[in-house]
């Protein structure tokens, strides 16, 4: 289910925004199967994790962005015909990492193709607005091809958190 510690962050290091990975206060990760139910699983995992970390302020924004990033990975990041097959190793992985005033959601998939944002003014389109929504609700986002044996890419979104979610001072 979830994994803590910096060892799981190591393969992601060069794919993430320039934040000090040694200063991560919380980290969790989950593997997602190659089927569309994985979007719901990712949302539930995010909801549980943010609840444990006591981050309620950006809850809805983060869940929406996670849904879009996972949907994009399933739709565009998997080889043709992979979706809905019972693959032993889930090809998509969601990482959540929290710093004192930052939260990063990163989704890794096997494709090295860059994410492409479609024109945002075509509101009648059935799909293609995912990255527009990510850009609208996150405080920053980007992507990077993975190096080494993992291959693929990671797409990340960054959220600023209110100063000190729960201050230690007793007033």
Give a description of the structure.
The chain has 171 residues and is α+β, with helices and mostly antiparallel strands. Helix content is 25%, strand content 21%. Strands 1-2-3-5-4 form a 5-stranded antiparallel beta sheet, with helices on one face. Helix 1 (37-52) packs antiparallel against helix 2 (59-76) and helix 2 runs antiparallel to helix 3 (130-137). The model is unreliable at 1-8 and 165-171 (pLDDT under 50).
Give the SSE layout.
Blueprint: E1 26-32, H1 37-52, H2 59-76, E2 92-98, E3 102-109, H3 130-137, E4 140-145, E5 153-160
Antiparallel strand pairs: 1-2, 2-3, 3-5, 4-5
Helix pairs in contact: 1-2, 2-3
Key traits:
single chain, 5 strands, globular, 171 residues, alpha+beta, disordered C terminus, disordered N terminus, 5-stranded antiparallel beta sheet
State which percent range the strand residues make up.
15-25%
Residue ranges: pLDDT <50 for 5 or more in a row?
1-8, 165-171
Oligomeric description of these chains: single chain
Q: Strand order across the biggest sheet? A: 1-2-3-5-4
- Helix and strand element order: EHHEEHEE
User: Roughly how much helix do the residues carry, as a percent range?
Assistant: 10-25%
Largest sheet: 5 strands, antiparallel
Using only C-alpha atoms, the radius of gyration works out to 16 Å
| Helix-and-strand structural type | alpha+beta
Distance between the termini: 38 Å
Care to count the β-strands?
5
> How many helices?
3
Coarse shape: globular
Mean pLDDT across all amino acids = 79
